[in-house]
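User: I'm putting together notes for a lab meeting next week and I want to include a structural view of one of the chains we've been expressing. I don't have a solved structure, so I'd like a prediction I can at least talk through. The sequence is below, exactly as it appears in our construct file.
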Amino acid sequence: MELLKNYIGGEWVESSTGETTESYNPATGEVVGLLTRSNEVDVQKAAVAARAAFKTWRHTPAPVRGEILMKIGQALEKHKDELAQLLTREMGKVLAEARGDVQEAIDVAYYFAGEGRRLFGQTMPSELTNKACMTLRDPIGVVAAITAWNFPIAIPAWKMMPALIAGNTVIFKPASDGAVVATALVKVLIEAGVPSGVVNLILGPGNLIGDALVTNPGIDAITFTGSTETGTKMAATASLCNKRVSLEMGGKNAIIVMDDADLDLAVDGIIWSAYGTTGQRCTACSRVIVHKDAKEELLNKLVVKIKELKLGNGLDSKVDIGPVINSTQLDSIHKYVEIGKAEGARLLIGGERATEGELAKGSFYRPTLFADVTPDMRIAQEEIFGPVLSVITIDSLAESIEVNNNTRFGLSASIYTQNINNVYTAIRDITTGILYINAGTIGAEVHLPFGGTRGTGNGHREVGTAAIDFYTEWKSIYVDFSGTLQRAQIDNR
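Assistant: Thanks for the context. Below is the predicted structure for the 493-residue chain, given as structure tokens.
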């Protein structure tokens, strides 16, 4: 099996450690790739290469950088099916979702290609005569992109495309469980003409490489997607180095179902949001907050739909739900199910590993539904990151909003209602970064900001024009053509 290497300064190189690790298919247990295992020495090499490339890349006209991003989008389209197949083999999500993962990267590349002609600054009047004022954007420098395994192509594209169009260079550290796909993605970037050193790939363990990236003085900014615990520690360390950090972390997303909701529509949205990607999305619905008058009918409909879901290898077109990422996550999910039962929640369906037949080879967990969950239970407060859904009963819209907002996370929320007053009350009072009306909690579009509040993030946003704000520094320009000394706030009065 070919050894997959780091990509530093335009060359594929083995790590300085000489060590390797393997990536496995979570559906079958087969080895998908053999990976070099890096350390802080390799991070330093990548930082030097990225810093050298930055000197040229920042001076490349932004529209020209945009042309390269356009070629990236075209190359991704060309390789979409093979990337999706590889993604399903390494990460496990069903093939239709894997294609969507790649398509999102295509959309991001095309969107930010256009931003090459729209990196707008501002002009504004001066308070003094014969003086002009303007602002423009400067790139930050070298950006470390630390990404998650659940969207191993889309999330790196979310981070790299705005960084690149703004004139930054990138060190890309993918999750180990998505490193084979990440390597394939970098090969597509090379094919599209990304210059040497502009994008560098480092493979290795997250704790070691992540710490090295955060503390390396040659790296100016960190963009991270992962757990709240890891991100919070990373931000604390980065603050001591005076580095800019963008965090995209956990979620405990809820769908509110009011008594006037279209229940069939709500059920479809809940099933897709809770069990799509096997519940392994930061925007996955893990709580349903249902009005007491709709509770029983909704539960009955959900159980019927859950029974119809088929588990299996994501390459099988008949499969609805693939495996969870690995055995460690499988154990974590089951631990939370046991916690839910111990807390007094009523298990309606699921709650166990799937081990019959071919499923025994992989990390499969049955779609799980709890009823009679109270808002303070751990399964209603802590991120499980698996196919486990908790149903909480409420009496009013005001109570549903209070329950929705009362978690440490604030990424995504949804409300199903036919009452326009309910809709606008929810828009005003729900405190998540993303809110859906009569739709599930997942499904971002790349021209809108993506991110959350509270423990979900630290105020920055992915994609959309908001992403450019993270990857650039504002520079204010004053041009005095008066020929005399003018002292602002002194000579203007």
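A couple of points you could mention at the meeting. The domain at 253-437 is CATH 3.40.309.10 (Aldehyde Dehydrogenase; Chain A, domain 2). The mean pLDDT is 97.

User: Perfect, that's what I needed.
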